[in-house]
Design goal:
The protein is mainly alpha-helical. The chain has six helices and no strands. It is elongated, with a radius of gyration of 35 Å.
């Protein structure tokens, strides 16, 4: 905050600049809370339905955050499970990409094989006919 460019463009008062930055952050937080409140009204959870009231009480200091109990015992387990899920999802995505690549290669090879069989045309049909005729003769014996 003490750089010459910031002082030249904005102000020499560092407290004013910090207050300005803090007020911008609070505006962003209020907008996020409004969005969460709108989404929470669609939920069946009672706490989410009344999120705007709880947020306003927290903002005005009616509810003391220090007195709220938060169960941190299970948080580490939940985080580990989420990390495992993220890792396995990433592995699945990588496998799907690899499978798509292999499928594309196989379809290219298959179309090349079909084109080459069409070029052979009559010969391949005749070979199949001869093979079928031989198989029929062997089965009759």
């Amino acid at each position: 905050m003490r750089s010459k460019g910031v002082i030249y463009l904005n102000s020499k008062d560092e407290g004013f600049l910090l207050n300005l930055a803090c007020s911008e952050r609070l505006k962003d937080l209020n907008q996020a809370a409004i969005t969460v409140s709108r989404l929470g009204q669609k939920c069946s959870d009672f706490g989410l339905n009344r999120f705007d009231i709880i947020y306003n009480d927290l903002k005005h200091g009616i509810i003391d955050l220090g007195k709220l109990k938060f169960g941190t015992k299970n948080v580490h387990k939940i985080i580990e499970r989420m990390e495992k899920s993220i890792y396995s999802t990433a592995n699945l995505h990588a496998a799907l990409e690899n499978l798509a690549f292999e499928r594309e290669n196989f379809s290219c090879r298959l179309s090349h094989h079909r084109r080459s069989r069409k070029r052979m045309g009559y010969l391949s049909l005749r070979r199949r006919f001869d093979f079928d005729r031989e198989a029929l003769l062997r089965s009759e014996q």
